[in-house]
Design goal:
The complex is a heterodimer of chains A (about 170) and B (about 450). By secondary structure, chain A is mainly α. Helix content of chain A is about 70%, strand content about 0%. In chain B, a hairpin with a 4-residue loop joins strand 5 and strand 6. The chains are: A mainly alpha (about 170), B alpha+beta (about 450). The interface between A and B is large, with 53 and 55 residues.
């Protein structure tokens, strides 16, 4: 556990990024998320906005920033679907909050932690979506749980490549 | 108090954000007739929600359109500069194909017109031809829970909500949101979609919607053993969105509805390739409209049909000539209809049997007299009385009077058959063959049935 727990001040360092990067990365994530399913069809399992939300929430170590980022991206995703606005928003708001809260306590530079965090938050988000669809909205909405697990694995793998890439844009003090 | 807010700041912000979004969700939910609160994907959005969708569309659509056009540009460079081998020959072949297809299309359009007339007679408002706008798919919702995609045509191109989106293979979905230059299309495999469909052979109706795996399925169907895989599914036309009779797909499998006993779900294999859509057609009007090209095709079709009709008339004429030259049961010298429509008969009198050629009255064929009359011959009953059993006393067929002196002559010698005699008063319409025959005795021209 020593590997995963915060053990030094460096681990608690708050990473900063250029302001434009947030906008660009969010926009790219939303556009790619909307475009890639056309190319990969049913083989597109990623939830890129969720991965981006988790990354910035972990890096900023600020639950409020994570929630706002996740909420905005989720609402934009909702707007692109034909469903009610707020389903993805609520899920990603909670994901951003949890990721940032976890990031304060454990070493988020660890690869295994990143993979596990992405996996578990993806599953959690899907459970929240299902709850909203069925309970809050009263929709008869069936769910594809195997697909959810595949998406969780895919997000974890995507995070392995995306996180180091985004780390390069950190503003050094 | 201040320390409370500082201490639980993060949690409070989370609660505020969640509360705001839940209130937003609640505002999008509507009450059903049964009093249940549900969200309907088909219901129109409020102004606030629509504004958010518009913003998201403004953010995402321009890059999508740019990427699509750059992809098209790269593709066009390849196709315009590197892929031009055998293009001339292909062009010739294609032109020939187009010419042939235009003729076929013209014939089909004529059939379509006839079909429309029949439909109008039956009071159906369904039409056969529709005005469509071709659009390019530029993006998706990016979520496997939402089978929504975006097209590059919008309000400026004449699109509106609830217009049907199809491909030549089958139906795809309907327009859900319209923006100035783009539109959002709800696929038939989305769980919130709904389309009225009918199974082609069993005529069972149901509602088509998507399942969790992105497959369209027909729901609200009572278990029925007749539904088998492979049966075709068509639009029923009752949803006021999809015209009736469009292809939807084929039955893939039948599964029991997990939520309701006695009901089944019919999973459909869609005819349209919903996962790899590139171009789609939006039906902007169901009113039949024939373009100038179609009208031209129709004219060509009618010309062709005129030539066919002329050829058919020639064939009929030839068969009539052949029929005249061949022996037949009917008497070619029978009273022909008068040219002016007046009844044929001697001295302009009406025909004895009342048959006329015109005026809608059919000509009753004249019964030929027997060559050797006997006592069983109709009209020869008087000859069969005792004491009059000789052949000479038998009335000659067609004779004016049974006691006529000429009646002693056997009919086979002097008046062989009335068919060889010309009917007085037949006029110029007598058959040419009959005119060439020698004129027969006048008495033989009298009808046999005359008392």
């Amino acid at each position: 556990m020593a590997v995963t727990m915060v053990s030094s001040r460096r681990d608690l360092e708050i990473h900063r990024y250029p302001a434009a990067l947030y906008l660009v990365v969010m926009l790219v994530a939303l556009v790619v998320q909307a475009l890639l399913p056309r190319i990969l069809q049913d083989r597109f399992w990623f939830d890129i906005p969720l991965v981006i939300t988790i990354y910035f929430a972990l890096a900023r170590r600020s639950p409020i920033a994570g929630m706002l980022l996740g909420g905005v991206m989720g609402v934009f995703q909702d707007a692109l679907t034909g469903h009610a606005i707020g389903i993805y928003g609520i899920g990603k708001t909670i994901a951003g909050y949890l990721a940032a809260s976890v990031g304060v306590r454990i070493d988020v530079q660890n690869t295994i932690i990143r993979v596990m965090l992405n996996f578990s938050l993806t599953v959690l988000c899907n459970a929240i979506y299902l709850f909203i669809y069925r309970v809050l909205l009263g929709m008869e909405f069936s769910w594809n749980w195997p697909n959810t697990l595949i998406q969780a694995v895919a997000n974890s793998i995507l995070a392995l490549f995306t996180f180091p890439l985004l780390d390069r844009f950190q503003v050094k003090d | 108090m201040e320390s409370f807010f500082v201490r639980y700041r993060n949690l409070l912000v989370l609660l505020v954000l969640l509360l705001a979004q839940i209130i937003g969700l609640a505002m999008q939910v509507r009450r059903t007739v049964a009093g249940r609160m549900v969200f309907s994907g088909d219901a129109s959005d409020g102004s606030g929600v629509r504004l958010i969708r518009l913003w998201a569309n403004w953010v995402v659509s321009p890059p999508e359109r740019a990427l699509q056009s750059s992809k098209t540009g790269v593709g066009s460079i390849w196709s315009n500069y590197f892929d031009l081998l055998h293009v001339r020959q292909e062009n010739k072949d294609l032109q020939a194909t187009v010419d042939r297809l235009r003729l076929e299309q013209a014939a089909l359009l004529e059939d379509a017109r006839q079909g429309q007339r029949l439909q109008a007679l039956q009071g159906f408002q369904q039409k056969y031809l529709y005005t469509t706008v071709i659009a390019q798919v530029i993006g998706t919702s990016g979520s496997d829970q939402s089978r929504v995609f975006y097209i590059d045509k919008g309000r400026d191109d004449g699109l509106a909500r609830d217009m049907a989106v199809i491909t030549p293979d089958g139906i795809v979905g309907k327009v859900r949101e319209v923006f100035p230059h783009t539109a959002q299309v709800l696929g038939i495999n989305d769980q919130s979609s709904g389309a009225g469909v009918i199974l082609e052979s069993t005529r069972i109706r149901g509602i088509l919607r998507g399942n969790a795996f992105g497959q369209p399925q027909v729901v609200n169907i009572l278990a029925d053993q007749r539904i088998k895989p492979g049966e075709r599914v068509l639009t029923a036309g009752g949803d006021q969105i999809f015209p009736r009779g469009l292809s939807v797909g084929t039955v893939q499998k039948v599964v029991n509805d997990p939520d309701r006993d006695g009901f089944i779900e019919v999973v459909i294999k869609p005819d349209a390739h919903l996962d790899s859509l590139d171009e789609v057609m939006v039906i902007t009007s169901t009113q039949p409209r024939f373009s100038d090209a179609q009208m031209k095709d129709l004219a060509v079709s009618q010309d062709l049909k005129g030539a066919e009709a002329a050829a058919l008339a020639d064939q009929q004429r030839a068969s009539q000539v052949m029929a005249e030259r061949l022996p037949g049961l009917t008497d070619p010298n029978a009273t022909p209809p008068a040219a002016n429509g007046a009844p044929a008969g001697s001295n302009g009198a009406p025909a004895p049997n009342g048959a006329t050629a015109s005026g809608g009255v059919t000509v009753v064929p004249k019964i030929l007299p027997p060559q050797h009359a006997d006592r069983f011959t109709p009209g020869g009953a008087q000859a069969s009385v005792p004491g009059a059993g000789t052949q000479k006393s038998a009335p000659a067929p067609g004779s004016n009077s049974p006691n006529s002196p000429s009646s002693g002559t056997p009919p086979s010698e002097k008046s062989p058959a009335p068919k060889k005699t010309a009917q007085p008063g037949a006029g110029s319409n007598a058959a040419p063959k009959a005119a060439s025959k020698p004129e027969a005795e006048p008495h033989s021209a009298q009808p046999q049935e005359k008392p």
